[in-house]
Amino acid sequence: MNALLQADRDASLADGRGTSARARMLLEFVRELERQEIPYCVLRGEQHFPEPGAGSDLDLLTEPGRVHEVAELAAALARRHGVSVWERRRMGFMEQVLLYVFDEQGEHQFFGVDVHGSEACFGVPFLEARTVLARTRRERGLVRPERALAACINALGAWLASGCIPPRHAAAFAEALREEPAQIESLLAQIFGRAHARAMLAEPELARAWPLARLRWALLARAFARAPLSSARSLLAYAWAVRLRPLARPRGRMIAFLGTDGSGKSSVLEAVRALLEPAFRRERLHVFHLRPGLLPQINALFHGGRTSYTLADMAAPHRARPSGYVGSALRAAYYGADYVLGYALRVLPLRRRSVLVAFDRYIDDYQVDPLRSRIRLDLPGLGLLCRLVPRPDHVFVCSAPLETLRARKQELPEAESARQLQQYEQLARRLPRARLVRTTGSVREAADFVVRSIFEEPRA
């Protein structure tokens, strides 16, 4: 049956029928691994191969010296099949290739290929590739670890990373424990020590009762006892890749939406969030309004920490007169400091992971509409201030004909709406990495354009 399934997949790959771009890419990837006789086995992601679910990964294990070679192969085949490589990163014994494609059905698909050189905890190997690659089987046309070994790898990998095990992996681990208790105990003893292994298996609720911190320390202690120098190098490499390097070269994406009232920027942002949520999950989507908000509104400084604005005030963004030149300069400097400090303390820590940080308005709005922050329109240096703060990876300026803007919102006088519309379109042509988003069609069309612009373009 496996041979027939493999032959059917190869035939689908050869004629290109019935498979998406991501499926064709993954099928050819596995076939190339076998053609080039690169040792590998699939750790996770086999259940939906070659059509991974939203935001899922295909996790492979190979020899440590071939991790980069396998990741390069995945990236090259992705480009050949029209799949975008939107991020790559290396973390100790693992290299990740994060992929995106706008598929034939007009859907945004995110998936990844994670290439491991060993199973590791904080970058320190606890289950080496040669141990796993020596105990494999072929299942559904893929090379997989033996069943008990696969169940243990998947359960422990999830538990060591997060302290919990997904139900599917927990069920597989419980089944393997019933069928092959001696093999599971031997594997746990190899990783944590025999005393810890027996204590773990004696708990009726298994992972729920396991002391995570204590067992992590036991695992690391055994790894350092076996190979102190290489374990220390691995731990330092992991700390650099996961904790320190992202501060200098942040991951993920930071985007900003600009536009006058009625341009549709908030609606497009919400539609983008809805499209990305299945792949990124809520904890990896972060939206800020105008500023990071580390520093309070100036109005709140004089009213006990709370603004005195009402909902009626919000409907009149130009209700207050702008400050004089000195007051405007102080306001601009104060809010500029919020962008710098707020980015360092609120945004940058988020960007250590593959997140999307989106701003509904950004400091660039001050070049067109500073009046809503009581900053004079003719204040010199606003353009310089905008260049000094941390810049988004992408800026999307939403625009629509004046009559469409007026039909949506009439919070500003018509002449002011016309002026801002013209200024925002000029800003879109002037700002680096800015795109003009026409919102006269459906919101979904505009959101599709934004998502494709973010993930199809190579990162600067």
Topology:
Elements: H1 2-15, H2 21-35, E1 40-44, E2 56-62, H3 67-80, E3 84-91, E4 94-102, E5 108-116, E6 118-121, E7 124-128, H4 129-133, E8 136-139, E9 142-145, H5 147-162, H6 167-179, H7 181-192, H8 194-202, H9 212-226, H10 228-248, E10 253-258, H11 265-280, E11 285-289, H12 298-301, H13 311-314, H14 325-347, E12 356-360, H15 382-388, E13 394-399, H16 402-408, H17 414-430, E14 434-438, H18 443-456
Parallel strand pairs: 2-5, 10-12, 10-13, 11-12, 13-14
Antiparallel strand pairs: 1-2, 3-4, 4-5, 6-7, 8-9
Compact overview of the structure:
By secondary structure, this protein is of the alpha/beta class.
How would you describe the overall organization of this protein?
The chain has 18 helices and 14 strands. It is α/β, with parallel strands linked by helices and 460 residues long. The strands form four sheets. Strands 1-2-5-4-3 form a five-stranded mixed beta sheet, sandwiched between helices. A hairpin with a 2-residue loop joins β3 and β4.
